[in-house]
Amino acid sequence: MNRVFSAAVLAATVTLLIGCQPKVPIGYQRQLAPDLFTPGVEPAENSYRLLIEPQSEGAFPCTLAIARVEPDESAAGDFLLAETPTSEPALRLTVAKMSPAEQARWTEAFRGMLAIRDLRFLDPLSLKDRGNDTTGLLRTAARVDASFLLTYLVNRFGPNSAQLIGVLYDVGTTRPVAVVHAYRQYLDEEGREVMVDVKPGDQRQIDALYQATARFENLTVACMRELLRGDRPAEEKRPHRWKPLCPFWHPLWPPPPGMVPPL
User: Fold this and answer.
1) Domains plus CATH for the chain?
2) SS3 of 8-69
3) What is the pLDDT of residues 68-90, one digit of tens each?
């Protein structure tokens, strides 16, 4: 009897302590402009837009480098990717380390697209001493032999509203070739945003962050496919560096008629 009473008292005490704990408020970012990475350029509203004509030569197959950036409140190790309006505080961004789940989603998104032969995910460690900025990302992408670099940011500015803003760079020319933007917002029956993170069950169909991320991935794949359709094979093939370990025939043995012995 005493054990039952002690267990009940302990359970009541734990419940009381948990209920008295202050709830941590959930903070959201301010809503960013879709032209964050390309100020002054007409953005793509919930879509993608090419900034150049899709005409290239020998750009595919290629390696695509992907880097996610995030706001950084600290003064050290951050950089300013784009100038914001003077009425708003400057937004400083830093390269983020992508989780294995994020990398897996990108890998699955490009599955079956043979023109993308490899995906390279860039993080602060891969930048090394090349600079924690866009120039450093482009240099790192060139080091891993990537032809294109995708830089994007996840902007969650409400309980159930989110957008992803990205820009695709040509690593060779270091110029942006496309902008990508995906936006989602879901309201309940009363017209209010309700956070779905605390709801039980699968809420992906009404999760703005999940749906915006999925749309952004699909738009990026569609953008790369359009660039692929405008690409033509290079006229001159790259010379191979393969050399045989030994001649095709022994030097003392006469070559077949019409064959020139190798030098």
Assistant:
1) 25-230 (3.40.50)
2) HHHHHHHHHHHHHCCCCCCCCCCCCCCCCCCCCCCCCCCCEEECCCCCEECCCCEEEEEEEE
3) 999 876 643 333 343 333 345 56
